Amino acid sequence: MSKINIDRIVKDIKSKTTSLTPIIEAVCNSIDAIGSERTDGIIDIVIKRNPQQLLALDSSHSLPEIVSIDIIDNGEGFTEENKDSFDTYRSGLKISKGGKGFGRFMYLKYFNHVSIESIFYEEYRYKRRSFTFGHADEIIEDETIECLEYNEGIHSGTILHLESIKEHDLDKGIDVIARKLVERLLVFFVTGGIHTPKITIREEDESNSIVLNNYIGKDSDIQKVGYDESITLHGKDSDWTFTVKIYKIYYSAITNKICLTANMREVTDSAIHNYIPEFKEPMFELTDNGIQKNYMIKAYVQGSYLDDNVTTERDGFIFGKEEDIYSDLSEKQIMKAVATIVKKHFQEDIQKRYNDKKKKVEHYVYSSAPWNKTLLKDVDMESIPIGISNFDLEMRFQKIKFEKEQKARIALKELQDKQSSEEDENISFEDEVNDILKNVTDTAKNDLAHYVCQRRKIIELFDDLRKRLETGKTHRESEMHNLIFPMIKDDRQVEYEEHNLWLLDERFNFTQYIASDKVISQVDHKEPDLAIFYESGLFYRNGENSITSPVAIVEFKRPKRTNYPDDENPITQALRYAGRILSGRYEMPEGLEEVIVDKNVTPVYIYIVCDIVPKIIEFAGFAGLSISPDKQGFFGYNRDYNAYIEIKSFKKVIDDAKMRNQIFFKKLKLI
To answer: Is the model's pTM score more than 0.85?
Structure first.
């Protein structure tokens, strides 16, 4: 035959495989060699460990690493025909069984040395053939053949020596290897009409052995669910029939999976929860004694479409994972259809999980995010993952809201275009307009509910800032500053949603702010600064820059403050500041123009927020202010500055804000 570069072939193998792959490939070849008709087939997987580590086993108490593996079978052996097939790259001898003539190259990918000893019956006598798997340009090297004398114990069979493992990624314990092997080879055990050989994995010194077949069957760790089911999927050009076999595998940590097979080999798999989220959590059942038994689900899919389209390395298919113009069916189409079959067998468990998930979503909305109530009907509960976080759940609601808004905008634009193109001006579009407005109204309700809920949280936070810390100190001034109005900002930087001055007066939502914590005068640099609660406040202007447009000054004092020297009278400070404003010494943001005022016409509103302590009561009396009915503040008018003055306690700010928003809180069931 023509020479080939074996090392290059092995190096070019890019498939997603492990050191377990050549063992599986070897066992599959042994099953083929034994055949489906025999009932006495035997395959032994012999584990050989590092001899140096074996000597030290008594002191280390850990299993030595596996260095070599023998796979022994009693199949027909390497007849001349089988030997020629092995010696032919991409041989077609086993093509009817799905053989690619390539899998054996996996041996050299993971083991440095591969050799074969085989006894076969040919020309009326038994013969022994041995050879090594070449690395250069010959597949078979150092071949020897000898004829054997007949005796009663002689029989055909093969020993495959996989020696000097390249990567120590195999589990050390044969019980773990056995579980993984049986899960990967399960397709052979479940195929009807085939007598699976007895497959045993054992230590070289016979100290431990496990029969893989014992994992399968009634009352075993692997049990069949229901009967085989056939499904027919309609492709672009043809209809394709697939067989689905479902198994429970107890005490397995693997995710519930759908496995696509080809020629009785596992090829690709996908988690079932990718298609039905309720399968993400581990499955379990209770025994008669009330003990919980966990298990995973594995669904095998077989069909000619899979057999005909598997790749050479058997690590994928030549059709696409997603639907495309080149493939009759995609991998996703097959997986999705099979997931529906699996769901039917576990309907009771899945329905309970679905209901629990639905309750969680509804609880999140009604307890934490009532602004999403109008969007609940639009949520695709089926697609929501089990265990979704509140953050991700809110992102889903916001996506729905955005899509509804976009849909409404597009529909409105189309309606406008349609109306402008109609010749008959009397044509009514009332129904279409109502449909559009319904979507707009839903999203508007969502925004309003969200805003109201934010208000409730702000009120609670403001209330918390009144309390003392565990150290006995009060909260920092900057905390209250940023809660009421962001520091070092002006009206060009702060939207009305970003501040909370509505706590003091709802009219502040429609205010044109001039500055907070920024210099706003070229002459007087004592700018309002909410961070310095003792000496300054916040200055703003309502409406246009005109003589009749009001001016307001907000002065905050530190919570729990009781000591106020006479020169720190907040009423006097605020009036003095009002005088500077009314004198025309301030300008609009960025110096666009001066603040237009007239001390006889421009109304001034002064708000002072502080705890009502004896010194504040004294200052209010000197200013001629009246006490409020709830005893939590003072109010009055100063004719000299055309100023309305109101002193509010922190408690009054909270109580008034709650009262103004109470009807909204009730509607959203927040109280």
So the answer is: no
| Rounded distance between C-alpha atoms, residue 409 and residue 76, angstroms | 74
- 607: number of Cβ within 10 Å: 22
Distance CA(512)–CA(236), nearest Å, equals: 63
Q: Helix, strand or coil for residue 629?
A: coil
Are 212 and 201 in contact by the 8 Å Cβ rule? The answer is yes
Q: Which two tokens stand for residue 506?
A: 């709802």
Residue-wise pLDDT for 553-571, tens only, equals 888 888 888 889 998 899 9
Strands in 551-556's sheet, in edge-to-edge order, are: 511-515, 537-542, 551-556, 604-609, 643-648, 633-638, 626-627
Task: Enter the tokens of residue 613.
Answer: 């302590």
Read off the pLDDT of residues 321-368 as tens digits, 9 standing for 90 and up: 888 888 889 999 999 999 999 999 999 999 998 898 889 998 888 888
Spell out the residues 6+ positions from residue 46 whose beta carbon is closer than 8 angstroms to its own: 69, 70, 71, 72, 202, 203, 204
CA dihedral sign of residues 502, 508, 510, 513: negative
Length of the chain: 671
> Can you state the angle between helices 614-622 and 570-582, rounded to 10 degrees?
40
* DSSP structure class, residue 589: G
Give the integer Cα–Cα distance in Å for 384 and 392.
10
